[in-house]
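re: ur msg from earlier - yeah i can do the nicotinamide-adenine-dinucleotide complex, just paste it... oh wait u already did. ok heres what im feeding in:
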Amino acid sequence: MGRLAGKIAIVTGAASGIGEASARLFAEEGAQVLAVDRPDSAIDTVHAGNGSIEAFAADITGEDAPKKIVAAALGRFGALDILFNNAGVSGRAFVEEMTDEMWDRVNGVNVRGMFRLCREAIPALKARAREKGRARIVNTASVMAFDTDYGLAAYCASKAGVGGLTRTLALELGKFNITANYVCPGAIYSGMTRTNFDKPEIREVWEKKAALRRLGQPIDIARGALLLASDEADFITGHELVVDGGLTLRT
Ligand SMILES: NC(=O)c1ccc[n+]([C@@H]2O[C@H](COP(=O)([O-])OP(=O)(O)OC[C@H]3O[C@@H](n4cnc5c(N)ncnc54)[C@H](O)[C@@H]3O)[C@@H](O)[C@H]2O)c1
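and the outut:
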């Protein structure tokens, strides 16, 4: 039996990279998945033919997007066990040159959008936890939640925000048997990083930095998210799961 047999999950950012791999893995493990991504993404085609995955095109920052996304999961599948908030964007600029637009875009997707979707999903997660004994929130942060790099002020602030949001969710929702945890990917080959990591000189630097001497693949992070989403993680909450192949072990 799959590790998510009988579960219903929302996965955001599911058209590419980590979200795409996670939607697929969750479905393989028995879940029914609402796969959410922007209307201009490949969300309507990338999971075509997978009977356990329903595509839902929405920009999570839309005013009524959280309502529509949760309503779609409940309408299609009847309940919600797992909310995997994974959609994210990056952007680089030195603070001195960073525009309000860049700051707001990065933080708007990575933290504000996540917060608003959590808020909307909590009643459904509580209802499911009352019925089944558990429900889950899993959020994607980054090793940039605790490290940094040049030009990443908005991204680092947003990912540290994911940590603070998730730990508080864990505290507030524990008594309802809802866990909230976050994964911190290291350097992962995905839509966000492909252009850089396709350059051998950049790829080699990051491969060398990791103890395991390779870039991560989206499936590596999907497996971490699966652990946190599964029943095996019943007593894990407020946890920061670093999945970076040892990238951040040394200074
Ligand atoms: N790739 C890495 O090295 C790395 C490292 C640490 C953290 N992360 C985080 O992992 C998560 C997934 O990124 P990825 O690496 O798979 O990149 P990706 O670009 O391949 O996938 C991100 C997906 O999120 C979607 N998305 C972005 N904004 C959205 C919005 N407003 N509404 C709905 N969907 C939206 C994109 O369309 C895209 O399909 C992000 O939160 C990212 O910050 C990635």
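cool cool. Residues 75 and 126 are 17 Å apart (CA to CA). ping me if u need the other ligands too
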